[in-house]
Design a protein that fits this description.
Elements: E1 25-32, H1 36-49, E2 53-54, H2 56-59, H3 64-67, E3 70-76, H4 79-87, H5 90-97, E4 104-113, E5 116-125, H6 130-146, E6 152-158, H7 170-175
Antiparallel strand pairs: 1-5, 1-6, 2-3, 3-4, 4-5
Length: about 180
């Protein structure tokens, strides 16, 4: 079992209410305004390490002015590979050895809250990759803290527990065309 998070960072995914369950997760953190760009860049790099790529076409229809958030959408997998995995019985094989090319859509939002910035990383599609994505985001948070950036907030939770006023909530994401 990993060591507990130091008191100067939010709990890691396995320490929060989602534990080790393979469910869609969201991570909510707060950083100083001057560190917002560095924090978002670290999260983008973490998502690249988890083999996701930017999906600006998913974000193009979203009305960010309604929520006051900046928005990045990331994805992994495609329709062809998903059809092969789901329709050929390979999904059972994948459950034994780990993800090959499973589908995931991750939303990253940020907006000011008082003198700090709230950043949300939310898995709006695909729970099979939750461990991998969580591990990379936790590593990014660790790097920010090691670099002297104060990171706090509730940390990891079920994605359904986010408030509906954010594009990171799965239902709100669907309403804005981010997820099908």
């Amino acid at each position: 079992m990993p060591a507990a998070s130091p008191p100067d960072r939010p709990p890691r995914a396995e320490e929060g209410p989602t534990g080790r369950w393979k469910i869609a997760r969201a991570c909510v953190v707060h950083v100083p305004q001057e560190a917002q760009d560095a924090a978002v860049a670290a999260i983008r790099e973490a998502l690249r390490r988890a083999h996701l790529h930017p999906a600006p076409e998913r974000a193009s229809a979203a009305k960010t002015a309604q929520t006051g958030e900046s928005l990045d959408v990331w994805e992994r997998g495609d329709v062809v590979s998903e059809a092969l995995l789901d329709n050929t019985g390979l999904s059972l094989f994948v459950s034994r050895i780990g993800p090959l090319s499973l589908k995931a859509v991750v939303v990253v939002t940020s907006r000011p809250e008082g003198r700090r910035w709230r950043i949300i990383v939310s898995m709006v599609v695909g729970s099979q990759l939750s461990d991998e994505i969580s591990r990379e985001v936790d590593a990014a948070i660790d790097a920010l803290v090691a670099g002297g950036i104060r990171v706090d907030g509730p940390g990891w939770m079920r994605v359904a527990d986010l408030t509906r006023d954010t594009l990171a909530h799965p239902k709100t994401a669907r309403e804005h065309g981010i997820r099908a």
